Prior knowledge:
This protein is 19% helix and 31% strand. The chain is α/β, with parallel strands linked by helices. The protein has a single domain, classed as 4-Layer Sandwich (Purple Acid Phosphatase, chain A, domain 2). The strands form five sheets. Strands 3, 4, 7, 8, 17, 18, 19, 20, 21 and 22 form a ten-stranded mixed β-sheet that branches. A six-stranded mixed β-sheet has the order 9-10-11-14-16-15. A two-stranded antiparallel ribbon has the order 1-2. It is globular, with a radius of gyration of 19 Å. The protein starts with a helix and ends with a strand. 48% of the residues are buried. The structure holds zinc ion. Zinc ion (ZN) binds at residues 102, 147-149, 229, 274.
Amino acid sequence: MAAAAKNKYIRIKYLSQTIVGMAMALIVISCAGxxxxxxxxxxxxxTLALSTKDTISIVAVGDIMLGSAYRxxxxxxxDDATGSFKHVKxxxxxxxxxxxxxGCFLDSGKSTKCKDTIGNSCFAFRMPERYAAIYxxxxxxxxxxxxxxxxDFGFAGRKRTAALLxxxxxxxxxxxxxxxxIFEKDSIKYGFCAxxxxxxxxxxxxxxxxxxxxxxxKKHVDIVIVSFHxxxxxxxxxxxxxxxxxxxxxxxxDVYAFSHAVIDAGADIVLGHGPxxxxxxxxxxxxxxxxxxxxxxTYGQFNLNGPxxxxxxxxxxxxxxxxxxxxxxVSTRQTKLSRLTIDQNHTALKKxxxxxxxDFAGHRLTFSxxxxxxxx
Length: 376
Ligand SMILES: [Zn+2]
């Protein structure tokens, strides 16, 4: 059973625009590998298989946009992005390797978004379609597509991006057309869903809907992973305010209330990004929350000044009930010239420590040996 189930890929698509009314939604199951029935309670064999793996490692990073050919191909990196992850590749290894896909894959087309220019810039990101394979080669097997750039080139961009990720067997979720995904690896069933304040994505502001989806997933999988792209952006938004955040007149969600609510509903880990800076971490009901994983690998027009140039790469260990064990922190940095490298000064880790101390006073976490642990 364990061998047969290994690396089985299961995807369910709800053909509904919202999560509300899930019971009425039409479920389409596509399955590569041996047949499986989604919706059954785990069998005794499944439970036995689960017990054979007692530690799960989830590698998590924040925003990734490898270079946009819009408006000009001259804006692409000189190595055509092939070396984007060369300094961190050895760390991108785990049962799950997660990141936020901050853009779309599409080889042509204009963006209506560029009416809203800031100075001479246009923050519309269209990665060449060949760049999708670079994510795959780097080890990413789970991506959030709920964010403010996946829709930069409308339906065409979202559709092509989804098709490419499907073809590469990279799991992803967060669009209304793909709100969640269920997949299995090494006999562990994972459910993943992703939220943002942006159009055509699951809404971070609709917390009751988010809870419904998470509790639905929890009935069908062993480990539920939730991602959000939320909160204000930049150096003045490093703190978790524990209230709704407004940025560019947009409600970017209450990331604290959201994270706690989805854990109350059954989430095992919450991976946040969106502010382009590192934020605090928290362990709530034995479940790990990263409030912002920052700019991980973002080429081109991204501001990399100050805290925007540093980001953590977390390797988070959970037990097979999804409870937090510990996390290894690799600090990375980006500059326009050197691009993504390891930061020997551990700036991102220091940020996590200071922000966690200030935003979650009285927390029971310790930070030593580049590890996050819970006090005994
Ligand atoms: Zn964003």
